[in-house]
Design goal:
Elements: E1 4-7, H1 12-23, E2 28-34, H2 41-52, E3 57-62, H3 98-113, E4 117-119, H4 135-147, H5 150-153, E5 159-161, H6 169-178, H7 202-214
Parallel strand pairs: 1-2, 1-4, 2-3, 4-5
Helix pairs in contact: 1-6, 6-7
Length: about 220
C-alpha cells in the first residue's frame, strides 16, 4: 500500500487515528507542527507516539502562529477552565484556521512521499465546537486537495481519513484499547503546569469524561 500521512499532535485522538490507519495496512509518515502553542509539552508526546506507531518518518515543522494570534493557545489570554461544554459559541481555544493549515502542510508532504491519504484525528461529537472539526470541512478539504495538486490533475483522488469523527471520546478510548495503545504517553491539556495537566480546561474535561465512561483509569494521571 501507499503510505499515509498522519497529523500527530501527541494527544489520544491523533494516536488512535494513526493506529487505526496502521491496522488497515498503511505505512505511516507522521507530521507534527510546532505552531507556538502554549501546551508545547504535546510535542514530546508526539515523539513518543511516533515511536510507538513505528512510523517510517516523523517530521516536525515549525509554523509559528503566535504572530497571527486570535487564540488562548497562542497568546497570553487565559485558557478557559470549568467551561460549560454545552454552551453556544466557539471558545477562545479555537486557533484560527488551524486544521486548514495543518492539512495543507500534510497535503504538500503527501505529494512528495507519493501518498494520496491523509489521516487526522478530528472529532465532531465530544469536542469544543471548533468549526474545522466538522464533517463538512473535511469533505470540502478533500475536494480541494484533489483540485489543488499535481496528482489530482493527473486523475488521482486524495482521501482525508477522519476515523474518529463520529465517535464519542469513550468509544475512541475503547477502540484504542483494542489496538493495544498505551495512552500514558499522550498529552491533552491545553494549560499544563509544573505538576501536570490542569484538569479543568475543555481538553482535560473531555478526556476525563471519556475514560470515566469507558470504565478505565487514565494511565497518564498519577495513581
Amino acid at each position: 500500500m501507499r503510505p499515509a500521512v498522519v497529523l500527530l499532535s501527541g494527544g489520544l485522538d491523533s494516536y488512535t487515528a494513526g493506529a487505526i490507519a496502521k491496522s488497515e495496512g498503511f505505512p505511516l509518515y507522521a507530521l507534527t507542527v510546532d505552531y507556538g502553542q502554549r501546551h508545547l509539552r504535546e510535542i514530546e508526546s508526539a515523539r513518543l507516539v511516533a515511536r510507538a506507531l513505528d512510523v517510517a518518518r516523523h517530521l516536525e515543522l515549525a509554523v509559528d502562529l503566535r504572530a497571527i494570534g486570535g487564540s488562548a493557545l497562542t497568546t497570553d489570554e487565559a485558557v478557559p477552565r470549568d467551561r460549560d461544554l454545552a454552551a453556544p459559541g466557539i471558545p477562545s481555544t479555537y486557533v484560527p484556521a488551524r486544521n486548514t493549515i495543518m492539512l495543507s502542510l500534510a497535503l504538500g508532504w503527501a505529494e512528495v512521499v507519493g501518498s494520496t491519504d491523509i489521516v487526522i484525528g478530528v472529532n465532531a461529537l465530544d469536542y469544543s465546537g471548533y468549526p474545522d472539526c466538522r464533517p463538512e470541512f473535511i469533505a470540502a478539504f478533500e475536494h480541494l486537495a484533489t483540485l489543488a495538486t499535481a496528482r489530482g490533475v493527473h486523475g488521482e483522488r486524495f482521501r482525508i481519513h477522519a476515523p474518529l469523527q463520529m465517535m464519542t471520546k469513550a468509544d475512541i478510548i475503547r477502540r484504542g484499547m483494542t489496538l493495544g495503545l498505551d495512552y500514558s504517553i499522550t498529552h491533552s491539556c491545553y494549560d499544563p503546569g509544573p505538576q501536570g495537566p490542569c484538569g479543568r480546561c475543555d481538553s482535560c474535561v473531555l478526556r476525563a469524561a471519556g475514560f470515566a465512561e469507558a470504565g478505565v483509569p487514565d494511565p497518564a494521571l498519577p495513581t
